[in-house]
């Protein structure tokens, strides 16, 4: 532990949630706003929230990490209009529980309840049906951030609108987000979640589009050659009955890995067969709201099963017009290369891709692969990127630790213009993480 200019620094080893990146970093843990101002003006820095990003978005070699976990207060609540002002270090799971206790809901939440509000903004996360609810930017009324050069800045749709927009999928570059006001929606009593089996990805896309208005809408698919694409679409509608909530602990920010990797070919076959028997048949169930929003709370064993080698999640959004061809080509790629895929999840999008946000009109697939450093897995992920880009696909930058700057430039032909627009709010390049360096943002 060291101290300088009135702030304390700790030397810590930080790791991405997918276990792909580990770095030894200097960390500041401010618990007063004045400590955000204490860093030298020319000190490279990056903000870290809950530490649950799949990639190295909240730390990086050479940058001082500002852990804002102490700034987690709920500051103001307007129960008439459904407006909630919170500090950026507040965890989304805690915010959802507070809102639900008062009859409200945050319509867009990521899968991990430990993600902070600042992290949800910086990544512009999506929820359980982005086609209906958009991304996190659609839930934020205004925010306040700290810029090391300009100081404290308030921004919203009507005030400093360009900077406000840049904060979403800005990955911390426009400044340190300190607080935000969220727009809530009335909460249902529960959801009736229905299951519709599908034979392949093309059928899945049809089912997703047929239920575009459902509050919950997503799919699971088998990633093995010979079984590729079969799975189930789950869609949830508001229910009147209030089920007994299932008590569960939040998924921790770090899941200790099992000593042996479970998701080899045999393990994946067992996992997929179990999911197929249990979930891939017609039916329905009433699910309490918190459990529906955070299904990953029951996935500790799944994440532990990746072992120390970790995993990579490649998430690509493919436009509707190219989807059928992409699905066929992806099935052929899997049959030819036989990668180990532990999970494929599908979602429907119907928005506009602003800046580097993961949004657009099409079908998104999140493909999780164990042991991404192994040569065959690495080769598959590279071919997947080429295939997706060839079909007009865009990647989710906050999910995929295997992406590099060259790949991202190919996915965004206007990459340099988008990058310049973002960096205009940080002309001195002070906000830097492993993510921003790897992708040359």
List the helices and strands and how they pair.
Layout lengths: L1 E3 L2 E9 L6 E7 L4 H4 L8 E4 L15 E4 L6 E5 L4 E5 L4 H10 L2 E2 L11 H7 L6 H4 L6 E8 L3 E6 L4 H6 L9 E8 L1 E2 L3 E9 L2 H10 L5 E6 L9 E9 L25 H15 L3 E5 L1 H5 L6 H5 L6 E9 H18 L5 E8 L10 E10 L4 H16 L3 E2 L9 H7 L3 H9 L10 H5 L3
Parallel strand pairs: 3-5, 4-5
Antiparallel strand pairs: 1-2, 2-3, 6-7, 7-11, 8-12, 9-10, 9-11, 13-15, 13-16, 14-15, 14-18, 17-19, 17-20, 18-19
Helix pairs in contact: 10-11
* Helix fraction by DSSP (H/I, runs of at least 4): 25-40%
- How would the global form be characterised? globular
- CATH fold field value of the domain at 190-406: Vanillyl-alcohol Oxidase, Chain A, domain 3
Strand adjacency order, main sheet = 16-13-15-14-18-19-17-20
Q: In angstroms, what is the radius of gyration?
A: 21 Å
């Amino acid at each position: 532990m060291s101290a300088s200019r009135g702030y304390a620094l700790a030397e810590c080893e930080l790791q991405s949630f997918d276990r792909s990146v580990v770095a030894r970093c200097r960390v500041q843990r401010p618990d007063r706003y004045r400590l955000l101002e204490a860093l030298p003006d020319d000190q490279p820095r990056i903000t870290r929230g809950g530490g649950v990003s799949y990639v190295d978005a909240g730390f990086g070699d050479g940058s001082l990490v500002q852990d804002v976990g102490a700034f987690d207060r709920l500051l103001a609540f307007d129960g008439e209009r459904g407006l909630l002002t919170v500090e950026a270090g507040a965890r989304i799971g805690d915010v959802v529980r507070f809102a639900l206790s008062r009859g409200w809901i945050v319509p867009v939440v990521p899968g991990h309840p430990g993600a902070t509000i600042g992290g949800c903004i910086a990544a512009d996360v999506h929820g359980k049906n982005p086609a209906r609810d958009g991304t996190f930017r659609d839930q934020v009324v205004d925010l306040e951030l700290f810029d090391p050069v300009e100081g404290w800045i308030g921004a919203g749709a009507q005030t400093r609108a360009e900077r406000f927009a840049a904060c979403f999928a800005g990955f911390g570059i426009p400044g340190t987000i300190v607080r935000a006001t969220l727009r809530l929606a009335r909460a249902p009593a529960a959801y009736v979640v229905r299951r519709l089996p599908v034979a392949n990805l093309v059928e899945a896309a049809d089912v997703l589009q047929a239920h575009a208005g459902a509050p919950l809408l997503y799919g699971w698919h088998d990633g093995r050659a010979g079984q590729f694409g079969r799975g189930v679409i789950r869609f949830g509608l508001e229910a009147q009955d209030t089920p007994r909530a299932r008590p569960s602990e939040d998924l921790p920010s770090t899941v200790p890995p099992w000593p042996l990797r479970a998701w080899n070919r045999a393990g994946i076959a067992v996992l997929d067969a179990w999911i197929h028997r249990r979930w891939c048949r017609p039916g329905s169930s009433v699910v309490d709201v918190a459990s529906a929003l955070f299904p990953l709370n029951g996935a500790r064993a799944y994440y532990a099963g990746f072992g120390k080698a970790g995993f990579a999640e490649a998430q690509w959004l493919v436009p509707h017009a190219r989807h059928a061809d992409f699905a066929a080509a992806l099935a052929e790629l899997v049959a030819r290369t036989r990668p180990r895929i532990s999970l494929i999840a599908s979602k429907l999008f119907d928005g506009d891709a602003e800046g580097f946000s993961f949004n657009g009109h099409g079908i998104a697939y999140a493909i999780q692969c164990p042991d991404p450093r192994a040569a065959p897995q690495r080769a598959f992920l590279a071919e997947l990127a080429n295939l997706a880009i060839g079909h007009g696909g865009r990647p989710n930058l906050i999910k995929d630790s295997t992406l590099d700057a060259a790949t991202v430039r190919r996915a965004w032909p206007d990459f340099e213009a988008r990058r310049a627009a973002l960096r205009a709010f940080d002309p001195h390049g002070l906000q830097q993480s492993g993510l921003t360096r790897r992708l040359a943002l």
